[in-house]
Design a protein that fits this description.
The structure is a single chain. Strand 1 and strand 2 form a beta hairpin. The chain starts with 8 loop residues before the first strand and ends with a helix. It has two domains: about 50 residues, no CATH class; about 50 residues, no CATH class. By secondary structure, the protein is mostly helical. Helix content is about 35%, strand content about 10%. It is built from two helices and two strands, in the order E-E-H-H. The longest helix is centred in the last third of the chain and has 24 residues. It binds zinc ion (ZN). The site of zinc ion has 8 residues, from loops.
Length: about 100
């Protein structure tokens, strides 16, 4: 098993019970958590399975503001890139209309 593949299930009680395995990875060792996941969740209690998420409007706003990174870029970078793509598209269309390209 390579480090990026995660085991979906774990056996407990000497192999008599199979249950979903926590999908969290250790920051330090990069290995998958060995605990079973909480029922209906992907992760164990240690890794946020007990969390119910933000409840109040203020909490939701704070969470939305804090979670700006998804993948390798922030919302600001994504918006900037989208704006520049639109600008580039406009320029390209203008050049096609003027006959710079055939
Ligand atoms: Zn875990």
């Amino acid at each position: 098993m390579s480090s990026c593949e995660k085991q979906p299930h774990i056996s407990t009680l000497g192999g008599r019970i199979t249950c979903p395995r926590c999908q969290a990875s250790s920051k330090r060792t990069k290995q998958q958590c060995k605990s079973p996941a909480i029922k209906g969740k992907r992760v164990c209690a240690i890794h946020g399975g007990k969390s119910t998420g933000p409840k109040t409007d203020l909490g939701r706003q704070r969470s939305a503001a804090a979670k700006t990174i998804h993948g390798f870029e922030t919302r600001t970078k994504r918006e900037y890139r989208s704006e520049k793509f639109t600008e580039l598209k406009g320029t390209k269309n203008l050049l096609f209309k003027k006959g710079f390209f055939e």
